[in-house]
DNA sequence: AAAATTATTAAACATTTGTTTAGTTTTAAA
DNA sequence: TTTAAAACTAAACAAATGTTTAATAATTTT
C-alpha cells in the first residue's frame, strides 16, 4: 500500500464513524502515522481527500447488474433473488462506508459531492427497474409501482443497518450484537426480502 | 415564542441541513438574531442545545399507536393501513428533522444521544410488532418475519426521503422536484406500502 | 556524481471554534 | 424606590481547525 492509500484508508475509517466535519485532518494523519502536511501535499484539501475516498472505494463496482438484465436462462424472479443477494452481500461487506455515503446524501452541503454519490448509489437501479419491468411485460409479475418496489428492497436493507444500536433494538438483541458480522442475520434478511418480493411481484 | 424557542428553531433548521458539527453556534446565533453568549447562557453548551432540540421536537409524539393495538372495531390489516398512513404523514411533515435523527444514529459519536434517539425512533415499533403478531395469531396474517416486516415499512418510507436528490433520481423527476411537498408522492407511497403489506401479510 | 525532482518534516499562519468573563441593561420583588 | 434577580452584550479566551511555508531528506534522472 502506498502512503496515499494508507491515508485514504484512515480517512474512510474516520469519516465513516465520525462524519466528515467530525473528523480533523490531524486525526487522519495520526491514524495513518503520517505528517499532517502530507494530506494537503497529496490531495490538496480535506474536501478533495473526501472525493478521493469516494472514488477509491466505489470505482470497482460499476454496473454489476447490467449483464443480468440480458441473461436468458434465469426467470425474472430468479434475477430479483440474485440481485437481492448481491445488494445484501455488498452492504454487509461495507456497511460503515455505506452509512457515510447516505449521511452525506442527507446533508445539504457539497452539492456536487451529493450528486456524485447519488449516481454511485443508483448505479444499478436502472438494471433493477428493467428486470421488474420485463417481469411485468412478460406476465411473470403483476403490475406494481416499479420505482417504489426498488426503494423497498434497498430501503429495507439499508434501514436495518443504519446503526448497530438501531439494529439491536429493532431485533431485540443485546448491546454487544454486531449486525454486519452476523451471517445469521444476513441469511434472515435475505430470506425476508426474497419472500417479500415474491408475494409482492408474483401473480397469485 | 420565547427567545429560547427561537434559538431551538434556528438550531433545528441548521442542524437538519448542515449537521451538528457542520453548524457553528455563531451561525445559530445569527439566524436566531441573538447574541452568541445566549446559547451557552440558556443551554450550557452546544451539545446540550442539541439534546434540547431533540427533546423539544419529539416530546409531543409519545405512544401514538399504543391505543391502536387494543382497538376492537378495526381488522389487523386496517390497523396496519392506519399505521402506514400515520408514519408517512409524520415523515412528510418533518422530513428534514427525521434526517437529522437518522444521521446522528449513523455516527459513532455521542452514545447517550444515539441511545435516546433510537428510543424515540422505535417508540412505536413495539405497537406495530404487536399488531402484526396478533394478526398472525388470529389467522388473518400468514407467518412472516415480524421485525423485518416492520423494518421494510419504515425503511421504504425513510429511504425514499433520504434526500431530495436521491428521491428525484429514483423517481426520474427533474431537479426542482420537492419530494415532501408533493401530495401526489405521499399518496403514491401510501398506496405502494399498503399494497406491499397486503400481499405480504394477508393469506392467499 | 551532479542536478533535478519528489517526499517528508516541523513550525508557523490565519481563521474559526465553543466557551467564559465582566459589565450593562432590563425586569421583577420588596 | 430601592434591591435583587434575570436577560443581555461586547469582548476576550484558549484551543482546534485547515492550510501553507521553508527547509531538509530521499529518490530519480541526466
> How would you spell out the order of helices and strands of chain A?
HHHHHHHHHHHH
Which overall shape of chain A is indicated by the principal axes computed on the Cα atoms? globular
Quaternary class:
homodimer
Q: Using a beta-carbon cutoff below 8 angstroms, give the protein chain pair with the largest interface and the number of residues from each chain.
A: A-B, 53 and 53 residues
Average pLDDT, all residues of chain A: 96
Counted by DSSP, the helix tally of chain A is 12
Beta-strand percentage range of chain A = under 5%
Low-pLDDT residue spans of chain A: none
Query: Describe the biggest sheet of chain A?
Result: none
| Distance N to C terminus of chain A | 54 Å
Overall structural class of chain A, as computed from helix and strand content, comes to mainly alpha
Number of strands of chain A: 0
Helix content of chain A: over 70%
Rg of Cα set of chain A: 19 Å
